[in-house]
Amino acid sequence: MTPHLNIPKTLLMGAIVTVSALSSQIASADQLADMKARGTMVCGTLTSTEPLGYQDPQTRQIVGFDVDMCKALAQHMGLKMEHKGLSIEQRVPELSTGRVDVVSAALGYTKERAQQISFSSAHYQVPIRVMVKKNSGLDSFAKLADKRISAVKSATTEIYARRGLTKSEIVTYQDGPSAFLALMQDKVDGFSTSETAGLRYLVESKGEATYIKDSLAWEPTALGVKKDEPALLAAVNKSLEDMEKAGEIDSIWNKWYGPTTRFAFAREKKLTPISTFAQ
Fold first, then answer.
1. CA separation for the pair 253, 123 (Å, rounded)
2. How far does the chain reach from its first CA to its final CA, in angstroms?
3. Out of the domains of life, which is the source (predicted)?
4. Exposed (0-12), middle (13-18) or buried (19+): which is 189, by Cβ within 10 Å?
5. Angle, to 10 degrees, between the axis of helix 31-38 and the axis of helix 230-245?
6. Core vs surface per residue 52-88: b (16+ CB within 10 A) or e
């Protein structure tokens, strides 16, 4: 028979308060403090989208604009960058579960996504366009009615295509190369893509593809952090501000998109508070 323990009520209540306080501390853990404690920032980028994040054929390393942004951000925050490759679909879940600290992966701002994760200031903005074959005769969105348009599954290019091309059939693929290949193989009639990501495909088409002149949207692109981590978000935004003032973001951009590259795409819009787009 188990002996009955007479535990003073005040001691029992004290124990409950202590456990409750510890639980509260764990629940409100500071991710920035954790990052500083371990000395690293885990940053997620794409791995198959040139020049944002892709495998260098010589070094076999993942390189690109987003990778360099991660490195510079980590340096400004006094941390070492730890890289993690992500697919389009993994970006929000990996942030939400804390498996990555920051996402720098063509992450377009939408109000829907802002309910799940937090966005830094937008460090660049790009138009969302539709690529077609030059000989197709498709030179306006009106002519895309009843046509098949490819897009990357769960990307903002899919969202904007569904919003702007309501009379078209949107066909999704796992990544940009597959969605582009579908266009080149005539499985679809158009390909919804950001202009920056699509520049690579225009080059690869060897003159066969072009953009319809209109744009589906003008998309702000930012870095992502986990929801309800104000200290981390503030530190990321402060670092981006410092990088902008020092010309670092322009320097990284020009390395991958500047006039001497095969993409030659200007960064017209500078760092902009994300609240500008949340109205």
1. 10
2. 67
3. Bacteria
4. buried
5. 70
6. bbbeeeeeeebbbbbbbbbbbbbebbebebbbbebbb
Which two three-digit tokens encode residue 166?
């309501």
**The two structure tokens encoding residue 231:** 């200290």
Q: How far apart are CA 161 and CA 180, in angstroms?
A: 15
Give me the chain's average pLDDT, please. 90
For range 202-213, the mean pLDDT: 95
pLDDT tens column, 253-264: 999 999 999 889
Q: Within 13 Å and on the Cβ side, how many CA atoms surround 120?
A: 29
As given in the structure block, the two tokens for residue 32 are 């920035």
Superfamily of domain 127-217: Periplasmic binding protein-like II (3.40.190.10)
pLDDT tens readout for residues 239-250:
999 999 999 999
Radius of gyration of the chain (CA): 23
Of 42, 44, 62, the closest CA to residue 53 belongs to: 62
Q: What is the largest CA-CA distance in the chain?
A: 89
Write down the pTM of the prediction. Answer: 0.76
Q: How confident is the model at residue 278 (pLDDT cuts 50, 70, 90)?
A: confident
**pLDDT for 86:** 96
Q: Quote the pLDDT of residue 279.
A: 59
Domain with CATH 3.40.190.10 in the chain: 36-126+221-276, 127-217
Q: Could you tell me the two tokens for 63?
A: 């390189």
Strand ranges (DSSP E) for 72-197? 80-85, 102-108, 117-133, 148-152, 169-173, 190-194
Q: How far apart are CA 237 and CA 256, in angstroms?
A: 22
